[in-house]
Specification:
flat, SF3b5/RDS3-10
């Protein structure tokens, strides 16, 4: 007999579990109807707290810019990674630092033109 729903976080799909399957789950992992609301409220909290997690009105370009800028900031902030890039590109560490800082200005090029309706 199938009676409860399990929400798969990886695929975002729901599937029914039989009573035998739910009895095998530990008590802390029993599917609860409020899990979906709890997950959404946690996501909203993270989106409000951290800029890089995005929000509902974030378009694809802005999301890509956030990813690129975070990556370049990490490269500049972690000296071993910066040294690795400088060796790989046969440039000085200072030049690589400068190049990454310049790339942070427009990491994905100019923004696309918006269609005003």
């Amino acid at each position: 007999m199938k009676f409860s729903l399990a929400y798969d976080l990886r695929t975002g799909s729901e599937e029914s579990l039989s009573s035998e399957e739910t009895s095998l789950l530990p008590s802390g992992l029993q599917p609860v109807a409020s899990d979906r609301f709890n997950i959404n409220s946690q996501l909203e909290h993270l989106q409000a707290k951290y800029v890089g997690t995005g929000h509902a009105d974030l378009n694809r370009f802005e999301w890509a810019v956030n990813i690129q800028r975070d990556s370049y900031a990490s490269y500049v902030g972690h000296y071993p990674i910066l040294a690795y890039f400088s060796i790989a590109e046969n440039e000085s560490i200072g030049r690589e630092h400068y190049n990454f800082m310049q790339k942070m200005l427009l990491p994905c090029g100019l923004p696309p033109e918006r269609e005003d309706d």
